[in-house]
Amino acid sequence: MAQLRRDYQEFVKRETAILVLGPESGPLFAKYWAEQQLPFIGLPDPEHRVLKLYGQEVNLFKLGRMPAQVMIDKLGQVRFVHYGHAMSDIPPNAEILQLLDKLIFPG
Fold it and tell me: CATH no. for residue 61?
């Protein structure tokens, strides 16, 4: 999440909302969010309801949820999906921002 925080204003410039799902219960998740002062939206998902909707993997041998990035446009269409195979398998912000630029300014 530090990566997202670092370039948060670049996402804002592109009118892009960031929503991060967490496996913790509401109170624990809210406490973490407040302590970290994260500028984007956080959603606790301890029962994995949203996780299952988007096919995010849970692997107990790799410490829980595997990273997943899903880009959904304003019409609700999924435009990009990346499922990580390890906690470090996250596309760099530059790649995501470049994809956003192509969606915003095609051609």
Answer: 3.40.30.10
